[in-house]
Amino acid sequence: MKMLWGSLILALAYLLLWPVPIDPVSWQAPKNAGFTKAFTENSRLAELSYIDIEGEEGPEDFAINKAGTIATATHSGAVLLMKQGQTSFTSWINTNGRPLGLEYDNKGNLLIADAHRGLLIANAKGELKTLVNQVENTPVVYADDVDIAKNGKVYFTDATTKFAAKDHGGTLSASLLEILEHKGNGRLIEYDPFTASSKVLIDGLVFANGVTMSHDQDSVLFNETGKYRVLRYWLNGPQQGSVEVVIDNLPGFPDNISQAAGGGYYLGLASPRSAPVDGLSDNPFVRKIIQRLPQFLRPQGKAYGHLLKISDSGKVLKSLQDPNGAYPFVTGAIETEYGLFISSLIAPAVGVLPHNKTRSLTDVADIGGDAHSDNK
User: Fold this and answer.
1) Could you identify which of 335, 345, 349, 366 might form a hypothetical disulfide with 329, taking C-beta atoms 3.0 to 4.6 angstroms apart as the criterion?
2) Which residues of 225-264 are buried (b: 16+ CB within 10 A; e: fewer)?
3) Per-residue pLDDT tens for 249-283?
């Protein structure tokens, strides 16, 4: 009996006192309406075609250059290319980190937001160079996504300045720590390539994630994953320097965001919201105890495919879903003449949703320089 009581006391002491990496704060999660109204459950994302990525996993983002080459990147650090006329991706370079956001500039260089290394640039020969790994005397800990304005300035997110992906079990594990803590260690950064200088535009974000220029170039849209919302930072006009909410109280965790052809934006919801995470938003003490539990007992993301298209004002124009999660943890999409290329945190393939369902996958060879690109 004494041994039993001793074991119980030790277990209790562990749950209450063992050091954990998070220092949670109280907040109030908005009430989750779930898959209702504009988000009513459907299976419009269930009929994807797939492009294999040679044993790699996690094609997080896409970029298309003027020649029609599509780039993506994976967990191994590899950047893969599919050139115009080809129907599969082949390995190009490896950053020796975790490349996430990608964007081609108007000179054909590929900018890479690497979660381990900061903001990188690769020229056409595949030669890598670090552009930014420190901003205002603070290291870039978790570079996440990047976009380029027409004037050449670069905008990227540092998802969290506290939980480095390379030190906390990878990008997904580090993101969960930032969200569970909820202090807001993320930031939006502007890099000026003409002066090689960077500055923080806004900080205090709970996992700063996807970023894209607005169509009129007057603002930057970016996702605050931990608060289920998309924000806008005004670069020009009477609201310059201010931030406004584009859409909030989303039914999932927003990941990447990118321009859609003809207006609007594609937004990936990597996973539905977690009832335990929301329910304990105002109880940081219990959230700390949960962090001491074995991994399999902590809140986990659910494999549920979900891609949104929203307008500039945040109206939901499309909600494409796959409740079965055959293509799980959708991060976003990029639009081409052939159709949507859809990205994922963990999938072993690129998802493709053709505009014309009668066309075969080999028709991806039709993707070329006239396809929509986020080049600025």
Assistant:
1) 345
2) bbbbbbbbbbbeeeeeeebeebbeebbbbbbbbbbbeeeb
3) 999 999 999 999 999 999 999 999 999 999 999 99
Task: Identify the CA nearest to 188 among candidates 127, 152, 227, 147.
Answer: 147
Alpha carbons within 13 A on the beta-carbon side of 344? 25
Cα distances (Å, whole numbers) of residue 221 to 18, 88, 201, 239, 254: 39, 31, 12, 14, 12
Alpha carbon dihedral 200, 205, 211, 216, in 10-degree steps, equals -70
pLDDT for position 375? 37
- Under DSSP, the state recorded for 109 is P
Count of helices and strands (H, E) across the chain: 4, 26
C-alpha gyration radius of the chain = 21
Q: What's the rounded Cα separation, in Å, for the pair 81 and 126?
A: 11
Backbone angles phi, psi at 339, to 5 degrees: 160, -160
Residue 232 tokens read as 């806008």
Taking alpha carbons only, the member of 192, 274, 193 closest to residue 226 is: 274
Q: Which residues pair with 199 in a beta bridge?
A: 190
- Cα(73)–Cα(275) distance, rounded to whole angstroms? 31
Rounded Cα gap, residues 313 and 320, in angstroms: 19
**Per-residue confidence band for 120, with pLDDT thresholds at 50, 70 and 90:** very high
Are the CB atoms for 225 and 279 separated by under 8 Å? no
> Residue 73 corresponds to which amino acid?
A
Whether the predicted model's global pTM rises above the 0.90 cut: yes
